[in-house]
Amino acid sequence: MTKPMGLLIAGFNYRSVPEDEFNDWYDYEHIPQRQAIPGFLDIVRWLGADDPKVSVVTFELESAAVLSSPPYLAVVGNNMSPWSRRVIGLCENLGRFAAEQLLPGHEAGPQDAEGLLIAATNVLPEAESEFNAWYNEEHIPRLRAVPGVLCARRFRTLSGPRQYVATYHLSHPEVPASAAWQEAIATPRQRKMDTLTSDRMQFVLRRYQRKG
Which of 55, 75, 91, 180 has its Cβ near the most Cβ atoms within 10 Å? Predict the structure, then answer.
């Protein structure tokens, strides 16, 4: 049986790192290292739509098993380069999620998205079945139908402080502020879920473009 696709999300606030060094580290060391690892697919950098010092990278994976493979383990943890140790040590860690795709299971993020919304949450154990039904039957289908939403997927996390994470690739980062988006989430089931979830985290991001 084919394993679901995986996703790794890493977020930092890099306000304490010189911008040129942070970008050079990501663009010339960190991302090329991972592009060379079998099972890593598309890797995209994003910046906060309102705060450009918020940096998020999405790593599309053939499956989450890639994160336990010898080539990946050879460049993480105690095997990180001195440059990685320096830059990461200066950054504020905003969250790292290793996850397995639940819905639709085998869909990669589109190449042409200029915006991304990431939403992560925990849910009360007694409400988990109801939460999953709502997400699959109502929430994802309604948001997929919003103009400007190119792709909507949800994941169960394998590591990180939250149980579930969803990604919404957008034609531009202003889509979540649109009337159509707000109408899509204004439902009685949504309001109920808001009372059954906790530790919600959301990033609205725009695609990173290297200067020069």
Answer: 55
